[in-house]
């Protein structure tokens, strides 16, 4: 389906992110994926580089689809910030592909937002003021209801 993405090796080389940063983004995506699976969402989730994107951004691809904004090269220097960015990108793509709001606050039935809270990447809800629902990667342990 995406074989044409790899046809231009010069573009791949030029846009290849720093391998250390890439590894950090992949690690962040693995953490986010725990929440995705805990939400009962299935389908391939991957970090990709798109041949049509000259900025060399990393994209979160879900079921073969990318949506929203890529992660700029250099994202991932700070692991908690990388986690927020990856969670945000995954959320945007998953919501676009599945047409559902994910993840959702159990109490207020509102979509959550990935944010930094005192240096920790968390899912926050804007219901009743603002509250932190769970650290990113630990939603499943909070019994978020499945829709
Ligand atoms: Zn809430």
Main attributes?
globular, binds zinc ion, 3 helices, single chain
What's the gist of this structure?
This protein has 147 residues and is α+β, with helices and mostly antiparallel strands. The chain has helices at 9-15, 19-38, 79-98, and strands spanning 45-49, 58-62, 73-76, 113-117, 120-125, 131-135.
Describe it for me?
- The chain has a 3-stranded antiparallel sheet with strand order 4-5-6. Strands 1-2 form a two-stranded antiparallel sheet.
- Helices cover 32% and strands 20% of the residues.
- The two termini are 30 Å apart.
- The chain contains 3 helices and 6 strands, in the order ααβββαβββ.
- Helix 2 packs across helix 3.
- The longest helix has 20 residues, at 19-38.
- The chain is α+β, with helices and mostly antiparallel strands and 147 residues long.
- The protein has helices spanning 9-15, 19-38, 79-98; strands at 45-49, 58-62, 73-76, 113-117, 120-125, 131-135.
- The radius of gyration is 16 Å and the shape is globular.
- It has one domain (3-142).
Overall structural domain count: 1
What is the CA–CA distance across the termini?
30 Å
Largest β-sheet summary = 3 strands, antiparallel
Q: Give a count of the beta strands, DSSP E runs of length 2 or more.
A: 6
Question: Any idea what the radius of gyration is?
Answer: 16 Å
What is the fold's blueprint, element by element?
Elements: H1 9-15, H2 19-38, E1 45-49, E2 58-62, E3 73-76, H3 79-98, E4 113-117, E5 120-125, E6 131-135
Antiparallel strand pairs: 1-2, 4-5, 5-6
Helix pairs in contact: 2-3
The site of zinc ion has 7 residues, from loops.
């Amino acid at each position: 389906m995406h074989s044409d993405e790899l046809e231009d090796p010069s573009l791949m080389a030029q846009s290849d992110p720093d391998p250390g940063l890439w590894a950090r983004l992949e690690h962040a995506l693995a953490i986010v994926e725990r929440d995705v699976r805990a939400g009962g969402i299935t389908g391939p989730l991957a970090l990709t580089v798109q041949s049509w994107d000259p900025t060399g951004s990393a994209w979160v691809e879900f079921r073969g689809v990318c949506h929203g904004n890529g992660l700029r090269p250099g994202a991932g220097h700070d692991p908690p910030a990388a986690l927020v960015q990856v969670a945000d990108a995954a959320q945007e793509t998953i919501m676009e592909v599945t047409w559902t709001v994910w993840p959702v606050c159990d109490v207020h039935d509102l979509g959550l937002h990935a944010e930094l809270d005192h240096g920790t990447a968390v899912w926050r809800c804007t219901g009743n003021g603002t509250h932190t629902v769970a650290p990113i990667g630990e939603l499943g342990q909070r019994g978020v209801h499945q829709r």
